[in-house]
Amino acid sequence: MDLEKKIEQIEEEKINLRLDIDVQNLETKKLRKGKNKAKEELDSLKIDYKKLRLLMRTARMGKTLEQWRAEIQEEKDKVDRWEQKFQEVQT
Predict the structure, then answer these.
(1) Nearest CA to 80 among 88, 63, 65, 67?
(2) pTM value?
(3) Which ranges in 62-90 belong to alpha helices (H)?
(4) Is the alpha carbon torsion for 55, 58, 62, 68 positive or negative?
(5) Whole-angstrom distance between the N-terminal and C-terminal Cα of the chain?
(6) CA 65 to CA 58: how far, in whole Å?
(7) What 3-state DSSP class applies to 63?
């Protein structure tokens, strides 16, 4: 009789241990998901920070990227005109 109670007790402990393992696995899974989400949010914040820094630098320069491109193109056109004049003078 005593042996049967011991067996029952051990089986109950076994069931409880399995439940504990299941709970631990669920908690681990939940923590991993939280960690992954936090990492994604951090990566997103880093990207936003880089964009903001670039925007601040551009704003400090007083011109947008398109304005800089237009100015560079104007300067290239001037160089081309001067090269043409130089070629004309040489001939």
Answers:
(1) 88
(2) 0.47
(3) 65-90
(4) negative
(5) 121
(6) 7
(7) coil
CA distance 81 to 56: 35
Separation in Å, CA 26 to CA 12, 21, 60: 21, 9, 50
Q: Which sign, positive or negative, has the C-alpha torsion 55, 59, 61, 65?
A: positive
Could you give the angle at the alpha carbon of 79 between the alpha carbons of 73 and 82, nearest 5°? 145
Give the phi and the psi of residue 4 in degrees, each rounded to 5: -65, -40
Domain boundaries, the chain: 2-90
Task: Tally the residues of the chain.
Answer: 91
Alpha-carbon Rg for the chain in angstroms: 36
The residues, any chain, with a CB within 8 Å of residue 65's CB and separated by 6 or more, are 58
State pLDDT tens for residues 45-90.
999 999 998 888 777 777 778 888 999 999 999 999 999 988 888 8
